[in-house]
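Saturday, quiet lab. Running sequence design on the structure tokens for the scaffold JK sent over.
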């Protein structure tokens, strides 16, 4: 039989042939999936015939995924590093198998221990759903090291998600998760995401964003730490040296034997370090039961900048002295203390301590551990600072730019509430009253909802994530309602971005003071 094709049909056939040829050249092969088990020896690397880790690692290329059997454990008795990531590959430890997370267990260490069970030194890598076990401190290694073997240039787009890292290191500076490079001058790590991950019992920091001080001009630019839990480490998180655009949000950081968060500069190697952390954003986190909740230091005189807002910071005084919820100080060997025009914005945080009185204890301390501070600006507005037995605010060198804070010490109205240099302010209504320091200050009990202190977050980020109790929410008669300053740069609250319909500021006549914005129901728009 015969089919007649007109000129329009011929054009259509040519177009189809062109599209097919383009697809063949543009996509020469479909991305492969590899399935592995701890005892796998198959050659097909399928779920029914899993292969060994080495087989899959050798075969996988960019755009492909290696699925680890989630009820298996991988270790290596001859080297510390169990997995070295390949550029563009996804490593999935929770999808395949009947377990919760595949385990990577450190089984060896180098002479100095400065290597990791998981080494990521390539771009576009995703590592999700794993347990990384440092073997109960038997080995002096890191858990996950991002940038370990980068010798030069830039690596970027690295994701750590839904992992548990624990019992890492036994001495020296060993970390649960380290983002750093010791490569040549100018090496850079960018766009790193660490989410929904728990780090505990790390000998030093749980998560360290730490461009090396042993090599010149190292930089980290763009890190998100969200929805993580960090506890029983020395520090929860540290952000050091030339670290730019690091954001911490919705993390629960508690029971660390040092600082919950330490923002600082390496004090001993100024020739290799040329910048401090800048554009740090710390918002909607819980810092509880650490020695210091948030600690900012500068011993080298470099610029540091950051914004800290919507955080709950409470009971960060488990030792008898040298403790506070929020502390800024010179720290290091610099003989001319200076922050080089550093600026920190500290807005709408709730700082609470209900512990026994002790020497050198404050809820907020500016200038501790130093004889002087110069070239530092701290914008301190809309914060609730509540202390039962200690001085709520100590500004040793009078550097705060402040307004619309609620400051309350429940022990007695004549007890010092604010110490500015050598001048003390209370709430007794006389010339020493804190309203003579800050005319817009509130000085009565903030009237929290009370009950049980929050121990973390519940829910899912972006849907219904909130602190798991409402202790620090404001009641309808709270003096913190509608008495805050209007801050145009942001509108959020700790009961904000975590919700599908967030509560934003202001809800009412003006901003509320503290981490919460009062509202009986979530907004509909």
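Result came back. Writing it out in full:
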């Amino acid at each position: 039989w015969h089919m007649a094709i007109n000129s329009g049909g011929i054009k259509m056939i040519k177009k189809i042939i062109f599209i097919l040829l383009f697809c063949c050249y543009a996509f020469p092969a479909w991305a492969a999936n590899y399935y592995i088990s701890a005892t796998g020896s198959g050659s097909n690397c399928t779920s029914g015939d899993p292969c060994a880790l080495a087989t899959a690692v050798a075969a996988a290329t960019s755009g492909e995924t290696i699925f680890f059997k989630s009820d298996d454990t991988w270790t290596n008795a001859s080297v510390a590093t169990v997995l070295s990531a390949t550029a563009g590959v996804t490593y999935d430890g929770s999808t395949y198998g009947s377990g919760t997370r595949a385990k990577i267990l450190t089984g060896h260490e180098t002479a100095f221990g400065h290597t990791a069970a998981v080494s990521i030194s390539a771009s576009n890598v995703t590592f999700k759903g794993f347990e990384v076990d440092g073997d109960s401190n038997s080995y002096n290694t890191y858990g996950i090291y991002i940038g370990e073997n980068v010798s030069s240039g830039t690596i970027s787009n690295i994701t750590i998600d839904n992992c548990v890292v624990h019992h890492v290191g036994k001495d020296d500076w060993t970390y649960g998760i380290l983002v750093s490079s010791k490569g040549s001058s100018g090496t850079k790590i960018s766009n790193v995401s660490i989410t929904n991950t728990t780090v505990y019992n790390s000998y030093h920091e749980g998560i360290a964003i730490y461009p090396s001080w042993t090599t010149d001009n190292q930089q980290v630019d763009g890190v998100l730490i969200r929805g993580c839990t960090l506890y029983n480490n020395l520090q929860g998180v540290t952000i050091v040296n030339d670290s730019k655009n690091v954001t911490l949000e919705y993390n629960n950081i508690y029971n660390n034997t040092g600082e919950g968060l330490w923002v600082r500069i390496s004090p001993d190697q100024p020739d290799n370090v040329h910048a401090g952390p800048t554009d740090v954003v710390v918002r909607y986190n819980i810092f509880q039961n650490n020695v210091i909740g948030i600690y900012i230091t500068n011993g080298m005189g470099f610029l540091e900048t950051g914004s800290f807002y919507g955080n709950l910071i409470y009971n960060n005084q488990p030792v008898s002295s040298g403790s506070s919820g929020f502390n800024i100080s010179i720290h290091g060997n610099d003989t001319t203390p200076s922050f080089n025009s550093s600026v920190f914005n500290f807005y709408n945080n709730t700082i609470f301590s209900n512990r026994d009185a002790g020497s050198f204890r404050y809820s907020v301390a500016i200038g501790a551990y130093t004889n002087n501070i110069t070239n530092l600006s701290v914008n301190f507005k809309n914060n609730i600072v509540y202390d039962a037995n200690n001085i709520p605010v100590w500004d040793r060198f009078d550097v705060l730019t402040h307004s619309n804070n609620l400051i309350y010490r429940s022990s007695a109205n004549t007890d010092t509430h604010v110490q500015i240099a050598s001048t003390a302010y209370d709430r007794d209504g006389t010339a020493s009253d804190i309203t003579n320091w800050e005319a817009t200050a509130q000085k009565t009990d903030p009237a929290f909802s009370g009950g049980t202190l929050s121990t973390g977050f519940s829910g899912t980020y972006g849907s219904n994530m909130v602190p798991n109790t409402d202790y620090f929410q404001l009641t309808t008669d709270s003096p913190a309602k509608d008495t805050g300053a209007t801050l145009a740069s942001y509108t959020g609250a700790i009961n904000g971005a975590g919700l599908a319909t967030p509560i934003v500021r202001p809800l009412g006549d003006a901003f509320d003071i503290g981490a919460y914005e009062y509202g009986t129901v979530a907004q509909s728009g």
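Notes for JK: DSSP finds two helices and 40 strands in the chain. Residues 7-26 form the longest helix (20 residues). Ask whether to fix the surface positions before the next round.
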